[in-house]
Amino acid sequence: MNIFIKAILVFLTGFSALVYGSDDEEFRSEFVQEGTFYSFRGSFVVEAEYECLLDVIYRFEHISRYAAGAHSVELGCEGENWYEVTYTYQRFRIFENQSTWRRTLKRDERTVVFEMITNRTNLGIMPEMLSSQGYYHIEHENGGYRVEYFQECTLSKSLLNGVYIKTARNEAIEFLHDFKKYIENICK
User: Fold this and answer.
1) What is the pLDDT of residues 45-103, one digit of tens each?
2) Which pairs with CB-CB distance under 8 Å and at least 24 residues apart come from 88-91?
3) Per DSSP, which regions of 24-71 are E strands?
């Protein structure tokens, strides 16, 4: 093997951050991964009334409808401009993940922030989500609104990290498209 090919291989194996993205008028997305950390930022433009849009993003009643992949979605504690929600996901009848998140409305900032409080996975071979947080943000754009979704996660080390992260990337992009459709159906 010549020295040029060896140099390329050394560079590629030493480069730990992967970035995937798309940018068009309607949808924008970027997925960044470095080791056991990954983040997803995606956005889309929608024509909707602002209050309806904020309502869909924040209120529990809507989350329980657009979290279609969840086996169950349960409302926990709640206060003024915040609440906790627990999602349970089941896959292949043997894998179950349950996580609780605090969602907080920051109306003046046109943002809903979320942070994982607890996470439990029943299979030790699966990566565990050690921390995760993010937000939804609304900006006025061309007679409509751009909805930005951002989430970052840190996982435990596992042999299945690559599979988990690839699945998370694909599901985040799919969620973005489904979420836009949901908003358009509700905020006509």
Assistant:
1) 999 999 999 999 999 999 878 876 788 899 999 999 999 999 998 877 777 888 999 99
2) none
3) 27-34, 37-46
Q: What are the structure tokens assigned to 26, written together?
A: 């309607």
From first CA to last CA, the distance across the chain in angstroms is 61
Q: Which of 57, 27, 26 shows the shortest CA–CA distance to 183? A: 57
- In terms of pTM, does the model score above 0.90? no
Query: Any idea which residue has 């046109």 for tokens?
Result: 110
Beta bridge partners of 106: 111
- Distance CA(22)–CA(72), nearest Å, equals 31
Comparing 163 with 186, which gets the higher pLDDT? 186
Non-local CB neighbours of 80 within 8 Å, separated by 6+ positions? none
Domain boundaries, the chain: 18-186
CATH number of 18-186: 3.30.530.20
Q: Which residues pair with 73 in a beta bridge?
A: 87
